[in-house]
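Quick review question:
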C-alpha cells in the first residue's frame, strides 16, 4: 500500500513538473517569422521568438501545433523581423519639449540615438526618462555641449575651448556622465591634443567634425573615434594614393565615419529652391519650424546661377562616390541624419531616406541594415545587448511587411515596433 502511494505521489510530482515546463508564460511571442540576420547576411525563415520582460528569452524553429502561452501572440507569417534602428547623428537634447518627438522616432523603428550636441542637463533628464520608462523613447547616448574653438560655429550649443579651460570643462562633463566628447570644426590642434589625452586617460571616446586645423590623417591618428559628415574628407577624393593610404590608416586606428548623405542631398535641393515637405512637419517644435521657414525664405530670395546649381550637383555626386569608396575599402560606416542640425530633415523618416541613398550608390541592403543596427552596437560597446535578433538580447525589434533585402525602402513598411519587450507601434 505504501509502495502504491509513493508511486502515485511521484507520478503527480513529475506530471506537475511536466505541465509547468510546458506552460511557461511569455509577454510576447512572435511566431513563424523570417529573421534578418544582419551579422551573417542571411534570412532565417520560420522562426518563433519568445520575449519575457525586456529580453528575447529564446528563438526556435516554428512548430505549427505547439501550444504557446503568452500575453500577446503575433503571427509573423510572411513578415520579417530585425533589430531596432539607431540614428547615430541627431540633435534632440537641446530643448525640454523635444521628448515629444520620441514617439515619432519609435514609430519609424528608431529605438536608439546618439545625440551629437545639446544641453547636458536635458540629455540626462531624457536618459532618466527612458530608463524609468523604456517604452517612452529611444535609448540615448549623448555628449552634452559641442566643444569648439574660441569663436564657435554654434555659440548656443558650444563651449569655447582654450588650453586654459580644457581640463576644467572636461572634468565637469565627465562628472555629469556624458557618453562621449563632441569635438568640432574650429578646435586648435593643441586643444584637440589635450582632449585626446583626456579621453585616453578616462577611457571615454571623442567624436565629431574633423578640425579645420588638422588633416583627416592627423584626426585619425589622434584617436578620434568617428568623423561626422564628409568635412575635410572630400579632399581625399581626387588623390588616389592619399585615399588608399588614409583608408589603411583609418582601419588601423579603428576610425568610423557617419557620412549623413541626406544633408548633402538637401543642400542640392536648396540650390534648386526645393524644400522637402512631409506630414511630420506639423509635429515639429515651433522653434524648429521657424528656423526652417527662415532658411527657406533666405534660399528662395537668393539668386542661384545655373553654374552654381550644376557645381552643387557635381559635388553631391562626388560625395556619394566617396562614401561608396569608403565602404569598398572596409571603413566601418554609421547611419545618421543630423536632424535639427540641418533643415528639412525629419525625425525618424529621414533615417530611411539615408538608407535609400546608400542603396542608390550600390551598397547592398544587408550591409546597410548592419550599419543601422549592429554597427552602432559595436561602436557604442553594447553588442552584448543590442544589434542582432538573438537570445538574451534586448527586445528592441521591428517587424516589416515586406523584405528589406529585396529593396531597402521596405524598411518603411513597418507592421510593428517592439521596445524593451513591449509593443509601441502596431498596424
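Suggested answer, residue by residue:
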Amino acid at each position: 500500500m505504501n509502495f502504491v502511494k509513493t508511486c502515485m505521489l511521484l507520478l503527480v510530482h513529475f506530471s506537475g513538473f511536466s505541465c509547468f515546463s510546458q506552460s511557461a508564460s511569455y509577454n510576447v511571442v512572435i511566431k513563424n517569422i523570417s529573421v534578418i540576420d544582419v551579422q551573417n547576411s542571411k534570412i532565417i525563415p520560420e522562426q518563433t521568438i519568445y520575449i519575457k520582460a525586456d529580453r528575447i528569452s529564446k528563438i526556435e524553429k516554428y512548430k505549427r501545433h505547439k501550444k504557446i502561452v503568452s500575453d500577446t501572440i503575433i503571427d509573423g507569417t510572411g513578415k520579417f523581423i530585425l533589430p531596432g534602428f539607431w540614428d547615430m547623428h541627431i540633435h534632440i537634447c537641446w530643448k525640454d519639449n523635444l521628448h515629444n518627438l520620441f514617439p515619432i522616432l519609435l514609430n519609424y523603428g528608431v529605438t536608439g540615438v546618439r545625440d551629437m550636441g545639446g544641453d547636458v542637463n536635458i540629455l540626462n533628464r531624457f536618459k532618466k526618462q527612458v530608463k524609468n520608462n523604456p517604452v517612452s523613447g529611444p535609448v540615448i547616448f549623448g555628449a552634452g555641449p559641442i566643444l569648439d574653438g574660441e569663436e564657435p560655429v554654434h555659440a548656443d550649443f558650444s563651449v569655447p575651448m582654450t588650453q586654459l579651460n580644457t581640463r576644467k570643462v572636461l572634468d565637469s562633463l565627465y562628472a555629469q556622465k556624458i557618453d562621449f566628447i563632441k569635438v568640432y570644426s574650429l578646435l586648435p590642434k593643441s586643444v584637440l591634443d589635450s582632449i585626446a589625452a583626456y579621453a585616453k586617460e578616462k577611457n571615454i571616446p571623442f567624436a565629431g567634425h574633423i578640425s579645420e586645423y588638422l588633416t583627416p590623417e592627423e584626426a585619425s591618428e589622434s584617436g578620434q573615434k568617428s568623423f561626422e559628415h564628409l568635412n575635410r574628407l572630400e579632399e581625399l577624393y581626387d588623390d588616389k594614393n592619399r585615399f588608399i593610404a588614409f583608408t589603411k590608416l583609418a582601419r588601423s586606428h579603428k576610425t568610423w565615419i557617419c557620412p549623413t548623405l541626406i544633408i548633402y542631398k538637401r543642400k542640392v535641393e536648396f540650390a534648386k529652391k526645393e524644400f522637402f515637405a512631409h506630414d511630420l512637419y506639423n509635429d515639429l517644435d515651433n522653434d524648429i519650424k521657424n528656423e526652417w521657414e527662415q532658411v527657406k525664405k533666405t534660399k528662395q530670395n537668393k539668386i542661384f546661377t545655373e553654374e552654381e546649381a550644376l557645381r552643387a550637383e557635381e559635388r553631391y555626386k562626388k560625395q556619394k562616390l566617396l562614401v561608396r569608396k569608403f565602404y569598398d575599402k572596409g571603413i566601418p560606416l554609421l547611419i545618421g541624419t543630423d536632424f535639427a542640425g540641418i533643415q528639412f530633415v525629419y525625425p525618424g523618416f529621414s533615417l530611411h531616406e539615408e538608407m535609400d541613398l546608400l542603396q542608390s550608390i550600390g551598397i547592398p541592403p544587408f550591409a546597410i541594415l548592419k550599419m543601422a543596427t549592429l554597427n552602432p552596437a559595436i561602436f557604442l560597446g553594447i553588442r552584448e545587448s543590442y544589434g542582432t535578433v538573438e537570445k538574451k538580447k534586448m527586445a528592441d525589434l521591428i517587424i516589416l511587411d515586406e523584405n528589406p533585402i529585396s529593396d531597402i525602402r521596405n524598411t518603411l513598411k513597418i507592421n510593428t515596433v517592439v521596445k524593451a519587450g513591449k509593443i509601441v507601434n502596431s498596424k
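Why it works: The radius of gyration is 24 Å. The longest strand covers residues 26-37.
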